[in-house]
Design brief:
Number of helices: 8
Distance between the termini: 42 Å
InterPro entries: PRib_PP_synth_CS, Pribosyltran_N, PRTase-like, PRTase_dom, Rib-P_diPkinase
Pfam families: Pribosyl_synth, Pribosyltran_N
Number of strands: 14
GO cellular component, one term: cytoplasm
Catalytic activity: D-ribose 5-phosphate + ATP = 5-phospho-alpha-D-ribose 1-diphosphate + AMP + H(+)
Order of helices and strands: EHEEEHEHEEHEHEEEHEHEEH
Number of domains: 2
CATH architecture of the largest domain: 3-Layer(aba) Sandwich
Radius of gyration: 20 Å
Strand order of the largest sheet: 10-9-8-11-12-13-14
Low-confidence stretches: none
Keywords: ATP-binding, Cytoplasm, Kinase, Magnesium, Metal-binding, Nucleotide biosynthesis, Nucleotide-binding, Transferase
Length: about 325
Amino acid sequence: MPYQVPEPKIFACTQSTVLAEKIAKSYGAELGKIRFSRYSDGEFQPSFEESIRGARIFIIGSTNPGPQNLMEMLLMLDAAKRASARHITAVMPYFGWARQDRKDKPRVPIAAKLVAKMLETAGATRIITMDLHADQIQGFFEKPVDHLFASTLFLPYLKELNLDNLCIASPDMGGSKRAYAYSRALESDVVICYKQRAKANVISHMELIGEVKGKNVVLVDDLVDTAGTLTKAADLMMERGAISVRAITTHGLLSGDAFEKIESSQLKELIITDSIPVEKSHDKLKVLSCSDLFADVMHRVHHNTSISSKFLM
């Protein structure tokens, strides 16, 4: 009788439970049982409420700040390792702390590297994530990293809009590679925003490199935090004669007064994924689910088949 690969077990960190339920449903499985014990001072302890000995398990959780989300993932990885799971995959739709991927001034940490080491030390044998802030973060890991691109979700949506005179834009110089990849897929022009920051989340000056007059512009970025860059870029492009400005950003942090900025800006639409739970709804906000993408990749990883088709960029 041929050996059949046992099905994996899927578990969720608390802040990603809704997305994990969608992923599990798309995979054709149910979420595994896990319980969190909490102390009055805020300390917590996860406990797997079923055997995972010798199993492949997927632990789903984005690690956006605050630190509790990362700590949940680390404790669950450690618990799985000590419970003798055979393969432990950290499924992180959003890899938090990734903006600190280098020393941009003296005496600061490289947090992305530190988080990578912590995940491996805790017990992760594989990482599945999406749209890292910088591709080279993969090199911080000694374990395999499957780096997915939300372009597999965004490109079909943009094509359905059927926009004339389409122009892809990057909100900064660092995102130019991403913008050029989208422009190749959509056969469109590209413009780049050049910005200078007074400090984190505060832009002192912005200029455009390229022409947007008479065009429907789509800004592409990996994340939106306070929405300062996107809304300032949208307003500037409309001043320069653009017909409309939309933005696609994989991870919607949407902190501070982001929604107020979006509402008062000339941004027509903001399209994000559900890699991070969205606390509010908004007329300008469109959320595309990444659950089918992660479920498909998890299935391919479990059955040792290629995932190359998920790398459109």
